[in-house]
Amino acid sequence: MTDAAVLVIAHGSPDPHWMERVEEAVRPYRRQMLIRVAYLDGVEGRGIADEVERLERAGVETIAAVPLFVTAGSTHVSEIRGMLGLEPDAITPNVKPVATRARFLWCQPLEDHPLVEQIVCERLQALSVDPHREALLLVGHGSDLPGYRERWERLLHRLTFRLQNRFYFSAAGYATLRPDTVATRARQLASCGELVVLPLFVSQGYFTRRALPERLAGVSYRYDGSAYLPHPLIGEWIVQSAKTAFLLDYQTQRSVIGDGQAT
After folding, report:
1. Which of 152, 127, 40 lies closest to 92, judged by CA?
2. Is residue 48 a contact partner of residue 83, using CB atoms and an 8 Å limit?
3. Phi, psi of 9 (to 5 degrees)
């Protein structure tokens, strides 16, 4: 029995392979710590409330919540925070916090964590042949909602800038599915060199296999549909995120105790 655990929260999918990639990412670390995976959609009996209840029955009092999402620009991240009682969810105001006595420690989504950037670089190196003769297009899901859209664009801008400084493509840019800027941006960049398209998605699925290729119809490009998963560094990122949250919580608790003794 342990009083602390990690809850990885992913979107979920009707495709069982999508979930299996997530489970594979955490499997090597289950001997180190108690880790459960919850899904927002697509897996009956594996929702956030279901998994929190299981952890609470196991005696867990503190849960590090790790959102396996590309960025806080996803409305699902706000939805999750609302379900965990960490903040009201203005996007889906009818969401009710899960009933639990456990405390939640919030971890940030993937964003451009150094391990995530390493995965992106590896995917890019597998696609690129001669960067000086190529144009890079990063593609993310994006959002039509104010605030969320800007978060997506800030992430895409940061990654595009750093990748361009590392690989020196003839040109580099980014696009989103929402709002849909893929076709326009792809045609612009394709005029600068052979187009290399890299999607920023957690796992392969509808968006990488169908939605994105459909928008690139009529444009010559190099693309393999690779996502962040499967990659062993995703599991490492999950564990690092959780350990950091536990350490910060421990330090905070020590500080509170110290302040109380000082008075």
Report:
1. 40
2. yes
3. -115, 115
